[in-house]
Amino acid sequence: MAEITAAMVKDLREKTGVGMMDCKAALAATNGDMDAAVDWLRAKGLAKAAKKSTRVAAEGLVGLSVAGSSGAVVEVNSETDFVARNEKFQAMVAEIAKLAVAASGDLEKLKTAKFPGSTHAVAEYVAEMVATIGENMTVRRTAALAVKNGAVASYIHNQAAPGMGKIGVLVALESAGKKEELAQFGRMLAMHVAATNPVAMDIAGVPADTLAREKAILEEKNAGKPANVLEKIVASGLKTYAKENCLLEQAYVHDGTKSVTQAIAEAAKAAGTEIKLAGYVRMQLGEGIEKKEDDFAAEVAKMSWN
């Protein structure tokens, strides 16, 4: 029997896009014959995944899971919303979300984790689903939050099934208060984050290039004014920016008469103990993915002839 080397497995994986374990099995089954191994994978329906891997997967679901004082959110994409409504796809996302808690925001760790009830890693299981369902799918990203003392609360917007939908939000609260009360208030904060999509927790967390752009816009709008006046205008403008875009400064969506900072202070007073917003994560399906726009006229033109 031919020796199956790591280089052979790597070569077959690059040719087919199939997971390493399946590539190793294919080479073992075909005595190291590369072409025969490709055919073996095709016969198993696995190599079809490679052909679909270039298609844009911008639909799918955002799933989240909370276990104790830790939580994670993950985006699993498909090509169509139809597949996102598939029970098998939803069951897969639910399991991946649970595994994401242990992965602690490490995408590669999540992809290599063993999928429950399977001998395959998550990435390989997803490849199998591609072959079964017939659409490209990807585990695109993950993030996690945890606190030593307190609670991680969650909220799903446009829920398609329990724990998954179009937008997933996690909020981490550090406090010695009752976890049930913290989770309830945290869910309210998570709903706020889903609605307002803050840029950062506070002005210090806003990316430097974003702040520079805001300053440049304010300076251009007020060009020609004395330097001391311009400085005050820019400072005032950035305060307004913070109130609109920074979580702690935003008007609380559940009560517009107070800021989020004030809402947290009131919740702490009611709980009789300090509450600190340790972090938040907001993940929206398809963010940053360039979707291919279908040109119907061009498609018709391709089909026409003289």
Outline of this structure?
This protein has 306 residues and is α+β, with helices and mostly antiparallel strands. Helix content is 48%, strand content 19%.
Question: Please, could you describe this protein's structure?
Answer:
- This protein has helices at 6-16, 20-29, 34-43, 48-52, 81-84, 87-103, 107-112, 122-133, 179-196, 208-221, 227-245, 260-271, 296-303; strands spanning 59-67, 70-78, 137-146, 150-157, 164-165, 167-175, 275-284.
- The chain is α+β, with helices and mostly antiparallel strands and 306 residues long.
- The strands form two sheets. A four-stranded antiparallel β-sheet has the order 3-2-1-5. A three-stranded antiparallel β-sheet has the order 4-6-7, covered by helices on one side.
- A hairpin with a 2-residue loop joins strand 1 and strand 2 (70-78).
- The radius of gyration is 25 Å and the shape is elongated.
- The termini are far apart.
- Residues 49-54 and 293-306 have low confidence and may be disordered.
Gyration radius, to the nearest Å?
25 Å
Derived from helix and strand composition plus strand pairing, the structural class reads alpha+beta
Largest sheet: 4 strands, antiparallel
Total individual domains: 3
Number of helices: 13
Number of strands: 7
Low-confidence stretches: 49-54, 293-306
